[in-house]
Please model this.
Amino acid sequence: MLKRIHYISSFAQDLSDDEIEDIARQATKKNAEDEITGVLMAKGDVFFQIIEGPEENIDRLFTNILKDPRHEKIITLGIQIGDLKRLFPDWNMKEINLDTSTSERLQPVRAIIDAVQAQSAIIENLTEALAAAAWAELLDLTTKE
Ligand SMILES: Cc1cc2nc3c(=O)[nH]c(=O)nc-3n(C[C@H](O)[C@H](O)[C@H](O)COP(=O)(O)O)c2cc1C
Model:
């Protein structure tokens, strides 16, 4: 049984190329011990990562990733479990810098990141507006009592 998770997140603070490479280097070492493979891409201040491996190991890793202070606003794009074939059998964690890579083939990934970022900004604004409106209504009701 294999599990695969795709997510995007935003840097919590500025991260240099060296710091991103360090994350990938340490991940590669640890993932090899846990039979985890995948890719870690960075574009602007956004990470896009795919991790795949035994379900228990992926759950443990993702719990750690969610708590990692180097990034925030983690949005899970997809979770697959089953008799999956690995997408990245040869990479324990391949790091790709989408800002410096000139590969045209990576254009769809850039488009996904831009689309998710734009949508999440809209959703964030709407959620804030809704929360503000709901609070106003609640306070209004309270003052009438
Ligand atoms: C964007 C991002 C991707 C990461 N990917 C991995 C990964 O694939 N494998 C891994 O072991 N740690 C990864 N980490 C680091 C984990 O969040 C965490 O620091 C690490 O698993 C803790 O390991 P330790 O308990 O052995 O110190 C990533 C961190 C970030 C910010």
